[in-house]
Amino acid sequence: MEDIEKLKETFYSEADDILNNLDELLLNLEHDPGNRETIDAVFRNMHTLKGSSGIFEFHSIERLAHACEDLLDFMRTVLALSEAKKEDAGEISSEKMIDTLFVGLDQIKDMLSHIQAGQGTTGIAYEDTVKNIRALLPEKDHQEVASNSIRDSGLNKAFLRSIEKSHRDTIIEHLRSGKRVFQVSIALSKYCFYKGMDPLLLLKNLSAGGDILFIISSTEHLPSLDELNPFMLYLDDIWLILSTEQNCEFINDVCEFALAIGDITAHSITGDDVNAAIPANLPANLPANLIDADHIESTNRISREDDWGMEGNGINMPESAAVSSGLKNIFFEFMEESNSYLEDIESSILLLEKKKDDLKLWKEDAIRTINGNFQTALNEIAGRRYELERDKSSAKLQALQNAADQAQSVKNNEQAFRMGLAQFAVEQAQKVENRSFSPQEIAAIVQPIMSEINIGFGQSTAATSQLSYNPYAGNTGNTEEELRRRGLI
Amino acid sequence: MGKNILAVDDSVTMRQTISTTLEKEGYSVTLANDGMDAISKLNGNKYHVIVTDINMPNMDGIRFIQEVRKLASHKFTPIIVLTTESQQEKKEEGKNAGATGWIIKPFKPEQLIAVVKKVCP
Question: Which residues from B are below 8 Å from A52, CB to CB?
Answer without folding.
Answer: 11, 13-14
